[in-house]
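FORM 7B: Structural annotation worksheet

SECTION A. Query
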Amino acid sequence: MKIYLIGFMSSGKTTVGRELANALGCRFIDLDEYIESKHHKTIKQIFESKGEEHFRLIENEALKEVSSFNGDFVISSGGGTSCFYNNIDFMNRNGVTVYLRLEVATLLSRLMESKIDRPLLWGKTREELNSYIIRVLDERKKFYEKAQIIVDADNVNPSDLAKMIMSAVE
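SECTION B. Predicted structure
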């Protein structure tokens, strides 16, 4: 079985994904880490040198590659992965999709701490970031909500989220 974790950036996909894979005794793949390893560049460097459109093509290719690997595993996708090139439909056909849904306030708090590492957030004030989250979340919601399982992840620790997901997929 392949389990794809989707959701907005900083929703906990990587942290929960590691917990879930460990609990299931299977492999874990962080799609962004896979891309960085394969291309010998950080996501930030890819964005800076080639732009978002080129990155989304690379991301689509990487998603298809990791999905073709044999065995069971959990894939943590990037925040926008499910929103481009019909990737959400591809993931739904090839495994179980789980949307980690969080409130805007929670996302804002988490992203304020990590925005330096996130190309789409560079230079934004708290107010600009809040507006950005609301706008982009509204645009992406239609993709995220195509997930087969939706988990409200606010105020739930990663271990408990992993248990909730395990119960839902079994």
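SECTION C. Observations
The chain has a mean pLDDT of 95. Residues 2-162 form a domain with the Rossmann fold fold (CATH 3.40.50.300).

SECTION D. Sign-off
Analyst initials: ____
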